[in-house]
Amino acid sequence: MKPKLQILMTGIGSYLPKNKTSNIDLEKFMDTSDEWIKKRTGINFRHYVEDNELTSDMGTTAAKLAILDAGLNSNDIDLIIVATTTPDDTFPSTAAKIQKNLGSKAISFDIQAVCAGFIYAISVGVAMLRDGYGKKCLVIGADSMSKLLDWDDRSTAVLFGDGAGAVVLENSTLQNESVQNDQWGVLATKIFTNGEYYDLLGTDGGVSKNMSTGFLRMNGKEIFKHAVDKLSSSLLMCLEECNMNINDIDWLIPHQANQRIINAVSNKVKIHQNKIISTISIHGNTSAASIPLALDVAMKKGNIKNGNILALQAIGGGLSWGSLILKIGKPN
Ligand code: UT7
After folding, report:
1. Could you tell me how many helices (H) and strands (E) the chain has, helices first?
2. What is the C-alpha separation between 93 and 101, in angstroms, rounded?
3. Residue range of the domain that includes 231
4. Closest CA to 169 of 211, 125, 133, 207
5. Of 9, 72, 73, 200, which is the most buried if we count CB atoms within 10 A?
């Protein structure tokens, strides 16, 4: 059988809006407390877009930084996939807007898998690169979740924030030949959907219902249980596919929804807490942006080294969930 084409992750960038809001700021206009939010979620701060700041603006900034980090130009990019739940317009896609902002001619489209969107978008990008749709793919997770919040619903309003992150995926045929003798890049992806749980997390409005966008609604307790179970099982499936065990993972970068979920998954799959990247405290839940935002923070701190094995995982409305394993960077 022909070996699978290796797809490397060669660049990363992210963007957070300037408006940083603390739990204490929220206490001023909501029936909540800094103590409850910290204890039940681990969140201290989240960032919110300004009224005139769009999802595409955040995505474009993150994308430019990722392209620069990969040592490329916008016109080197063949594919742009944007994971978002909060597009600028009902249509066209936010990806088309970002393509225009970048001055690119790449095939561009959005993916809707809510908080699991980044894992889905990487999986689709990898499959398309392997299938010959191009050699370089920009994957962007960008969300303005604050625009979907009901400020009278304290059980959801305190959780979410806004931001964007982007990565560049490259077909390894462009790299040094030595890559062929070693497994680099995306090693396994597993994505799942179960519409039986459609009503657990979503909005109470939508286009085909002839309604406005609606507000975010969530059965937090049920989602919590599914999250621990499904994030753990999808990660174990990826490990099995790679013929690895949990000790082979250098860093776990989970979707940042709740520190208690992260801790429970860590106990279940038996990965040490000090191998987990958590930015929930400073970002809150930024939906499709949460993994690339956390990854970028860890890269900038120098925690993640070229060649480290990473596990990424997320779950969101649908329910949609998945995990992936990758060896980051490229051979020297
Ligand atoms: O990104 C997509 C995936 N999303 C998730 O994974 C989220 C999963 N769910 C969760 O993280 C948690 O279920 C929440 C953080 C949403 C809620 O935590 P919980 O421990 O399940 O709280 P709860 O909903 O059972 O509420 C416990 C209490 C209630 O008061 P009573 O009825 O016990 O008096 C709530 O009214 O906490 C109260 N409460 C709050 N109190 C202060 C709920 N929200 C707040 C709040 N501030 N913001």
Report:
1. 10, 13
2. 13
3. 188-327
4. 125
5. 9
Count of structural domains within the chain: 2
Whether residue 177 has pLDDT greater than 60:
no
Q: Map tokens 């204890």 to a residue.
A: 39
Tokens 């009901």, residue located: 150
Q: Quick one: pLDDT at residue 113?
A: 98
Closest ligand 1 atom to the C-alpha of 316?
Answer: 2
Do 208 and 100 belong to one domain? no
Provide Rg for the chain, Cα atoms: 19
**Claim to verify: residue 138 and residue 201 sit in the same structural domain:** no
Is 23 a domain residue? yes
User: Which pLDDT tens digit goes with each residue over 213-251?
Assistant: 999 999 999 999 999 999 999 999 999 999 999 999 999
256 residue type, one letter: Q
**Alpha-helix residue ranges (DSSP H) falling in 70-181:** 94-102, 117-130, 154-157
Q: Which residues line ligand 1 (CB under 6 A)?
A: 32-33, 36-37, 40-41, 115, 154-155, 158, 220-221, 223-224, 227, 257-258, 261, 285, 315-316
Q: How many whole angstroms from 228 Cα to the centroid of ligand 1?
A: 16
Asked if 58 and 145 sit in the same domain, the reply is: yes
Domain assignment present for 250: yes
Tokens of 284: 């809150």
Ligand 1 atom with least separation from CA of 287: 1
**Average pLDDT of the segment spanning 127-139:** 97
Q: Which pTM was predicted?
A: 0.96
Is 9 contained in some domain? Answer: yes
Please state the rounded mean pLDDT for residues 132-141. Answer: 97
User: Among the three residues 116, 143, 177, which one is the final residue of a domain in this structure?
Assistant: 177
288-315 pLDDT tens trace: 999 999 999 999 999 999 999 999 999 9
Q: What are the tens digits of pLDDT across the range 40-51?
A: 999 999 999 999
Q: Return the pLDDT at 3.
A: 67
Q: Residue 306: give its domain's CATH number.
A: 3.40.47.10
pLDDT for 1 beyond 90: no
